[in-house]
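User: Let's play a game. I give you a shape written as tokens, and you guess the letters that built it. Ready? Here's round one.
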């Protein structure tokens, strides 16, 4: 099956700033891929390249087997929700649905109207008077009703309260089940990503630090904790990050075989270990660390 996203040595430079550097990733179809990294890591740049809003400086990118935004048909296959779920504040909820129908040849009016009704949104209400959670629900509904094959979401819940975030993620999972759509979700909220994502891409300093299916990545990473003086690295294991607290060392290591004394890590442990490592040693030293 054709990957939804495939990049090879993809780079993007804005004048003197290298925003994305030598990015090589493959996102299989059918995944909800979490894209995580600190501010300035290159997340929005990568998503802009995926959606065809910016052009690469070098390297290559394919989305759904084609160059991004190379035709009207290709544009119709990708739904996008930008940061803070922007909507047209002077248009009503119903206006958004009518505009979506005019702009998108695969528009699913029944789905859009049903989801708006289920979320209690008044079609006559101006979008500017909606709460943050309601605006996010409207933006997600419009993107999903395009009936595309890929949803790209750039920090859509960053400004929402916990209840609104939970509602947004619940609706996202329902859309995935109903539409059989792939998703790339950028967020710095690791707890949210852990709830919904089965694929992970970690960016820092414009470079990919880690990428792969979550289950596969968790299976080969372990945490070892013990007295600092008696913590040799297990044979065949690669140290990702170590920290000392009150005379104990806690290490996150990568090893394909059994790691004596190793305990499972969760998605947050894994992500923070790679981000901290990138900060400690510099992104350039991490080339080839992913997968």
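Assistant: Ready! My guess for every position:
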């Amino acid at each position: 099956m054709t990957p939804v996203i495939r990049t090879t040595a993809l780079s993007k430079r804005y004048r003197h700033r290298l925003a994305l550097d030598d990015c090589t990733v493959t996102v299989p179809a059918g995944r909800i891929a979490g894209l995580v990294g600190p501010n300035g890591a290159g997340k929005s740049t990568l998503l802009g390249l995926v959606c065809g809003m910016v052009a690469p400086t070098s390297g290559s990118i394919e989305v759904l087997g084609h160059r991004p935004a190379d035709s009207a048909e290709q544009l119709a296959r990708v739904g996008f929700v930008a940061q803070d779920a922007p909507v047209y504040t002077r248009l009503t909820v119903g206006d958004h649905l009518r505009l979506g129908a005019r702009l998108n040849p695969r528009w699913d009016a029944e789905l859009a109207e049903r989801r708006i009704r289920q979320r209690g949104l008044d079609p006559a209400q101006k979008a500017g008077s909606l709460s943050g959670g309601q605006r996010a629900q409207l933006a997600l509904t419009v993107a999903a009703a395009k009936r595309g094959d890929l949803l790209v979401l750039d920090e859509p819940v960053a400004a929402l309260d916990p209840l609104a975030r939970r509602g947004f993620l619940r609706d996202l999972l329902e859309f995935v089940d109903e539409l059989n759509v792939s998703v790339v979700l950028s967020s710095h909220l690791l707890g949210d990503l852990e709830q919904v994502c089965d694929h992970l891409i970690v960016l820092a300093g414009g470079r990919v630090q880690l990428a792969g299916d979550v289950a596969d990545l968790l299976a080969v990473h372990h945490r070892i904790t013990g007295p600092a003086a008696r913590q040799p690295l297990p044979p065949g294991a690669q140290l990702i990050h170590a920290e000392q607290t009150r005379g104990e060392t806690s290490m996150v290591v990568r090893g394909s075989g059994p790691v004596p004394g190793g305990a499972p890590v969760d998605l947050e442990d894994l992500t923070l270990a790679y981000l901290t490592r990138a900060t400690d040693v510099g992104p350039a030293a991490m080339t080839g660390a992913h997968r």
